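Sequence only, no structure available. Ideas?
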Amino acid sequence: MSPLRVILLASALACSLAAQEFRATLQGDITDPSQAAVPNATVTLKNVETGIERSIPSDPAGHYLFQFVVPGRYTLTVKAAGFKTTVRDGITLSLNDNIRLDVQLPLGEAAETVSVVGDVAVVQAESSSLGSVVNREIIDNLPLKGHSSLYMYNLATGVVGQRYWEDVRPSDTGTNVLFTANGAPLASGDVSVDGVANTVNVGRGLALSPWVPPTDAVAEMKLQMGTLPAEYGRAGGAITNIVIKSGTNDLHGSMYEYFRSSALDANQFFPRGKGQKLTPYTVNTFGASVGGPVVIPKVYDGRNRTFFFFSYEGSREGNGQSTTSNVPTAKMRQGDFSEIPNVIYDPFSVQLINGIPTRTPIPDKVIPSSLQDPVARSMMKYWPEPNNPNTNPATPWVQNFVQGSKWPTTRDGYIVKIDHQLTQKHQTYTRFNIGDAFFNFNYDFDGLATPGRNVVHRPAKGIAINDTYLINPSTTLDTRIGYAFGKEQQRPYSYGFDLASLGFSKQFVNTVQYPAFPTISITGFQGLAGSGYVEQPGYTYTAQSSLSM
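Reply:
I predicted one. Tokens follow.
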């Protein structure tokens, strides 16, 4: 072997360690009735849905090998001089399969055909990892409340999720990876879509998946665990592999909408007992997809060669929430704290009596205007008014405010995928996705100064480009590049608030970097504001090449 070839081989093997392969491998031996190897047999693998074929000869030992096979349904045809043509139907290859299928050729003329129909036994002795495949049939029949494809990790054996009580949505980027597989650390796995990394770091303490494909666009999903191959070196215990649908020779499409509303539900027992109405909520998840051959009348016919797939999914939600809290009463707002049993002291009246610092109680617990801070008086109007008449007269400020409301979520995402066969030995695909999500976190009351209610913006986009070239029957070069982007942006609901309107000095206002309503915390009472400011983008680039010989 020449030095140049050794260098190229070593480089390719080094690159392949970083690869995250999602496609399947089909291999086996071609033998005659006496179990002797049949060399030079023509072995053809045909995708039933796209018509794309790949043909290779068996080697001197009668072995054949198809690598980088897109998951789908296939037919295997074997032809050799002196033997009947054998056709094996019913071959289904799933994500990352490595299946062995041996074929015995009966003696006879090649013009005679023997068809064998039946499922291929999925025996993968070549892999030490464990895996659970979620195929299209399961996806179509599974009721999934939040419609997050990644949340289907709950279907895998040995997986324990951390958000089983929630509606996990595609926009819940952190929750979608909060699981442990076979005792591995929480959220230590990796996510790969169409063979490229789909996790980024946006400063939230974990590598999250900024783009979660809609379930309608997912062809298959596989969660691999156990002793993973070296190619999954980024993953700490589990790798979630997802492949996006591709177009076929037939034009297919779908349209859907999932609808939920509190208008169709009865009120719950305890809120009804408090005189509180049913917490309102609405959920609308809708989308459409279409895929097929690229056909331009009188210009180009892409059947058996070029295919497209397009998907859109959107969501408009008003997530229900209910609040019970303590807010200042009408008297307290005027400085009158006679409703509470505690003594109110004048903080400026400290004097020594018998050597002990002593303060003077405020008469009748009514704070005079001269002791009321003007900024505090301005803030008082931002607390909600009490609205629950069913309080204890001895403690009228306790649970005197109830609210049922909705916090909104808006999400849109688009996917375009093109598959193309340049020649029988040369195939490529490109996938592009872009999407965005806007929502407010849950909050305590409907007002500018409510705690929570962060204005959250989570854009995401990505691309995957793959090129597979069969150099000779035993050598395949596969090259792939990818890019994933996500951003965690959070603003307080009161972002941009004019602090001078509360009475703060101009000098103080000019020192504030991100103007927002001040955070107020009072023991035993509803607080004000307190949302954070986050601006954290994350990027992951993928460049990998694998030479299989």
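Residues 3-16 form the longest helix (14 residues).
Hope that gets you unstuck.
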